[in-house]
Amino acid sequence: MPESPMPHRPTATGRRTAIVIGGSTAGMLAASVLSSRFNEVTVIESDKLPEGPEHRKGLPQARHAHLLWSGGVAALEELLPGVTGELVGKGAGLIDVMTDLVSKAPSGQWFRRFTDSRHHMIVCSRDLLDAVIRANVLTRRRITLLDGTRVRGLAGDRHRVTGVRIPADSTGQATTLHADLVIDASGRASQAHKWLEALGLAPVVERVVDAGVAYASRVYEAPGYTGSLRYPVVNVQADPRQAPGRGGVIVPIEDGRWLVTLSGTRGGEPTADPDAFEEFALTGLKDPVIGRLLTQAKPLTDPVTTRSTANRRRYYENAGLWPDGFAVLGDAVAGYNPVYGHGLSVAAQSVIALRRTLDRHGPTTPGTARRIQRAVARPVGNAWNLAVGQDAYYPGAAPQPPTAVERLLTAYVDKAVAAGSENPRALHALLDVMSLTTPPTRLFAPDMLWNICFGPRKGPLAGPPLSEAEREAAGLS
Question: Is-contact 268 244, C-beta < 8 A?
Answer without folding.
Answer: yes
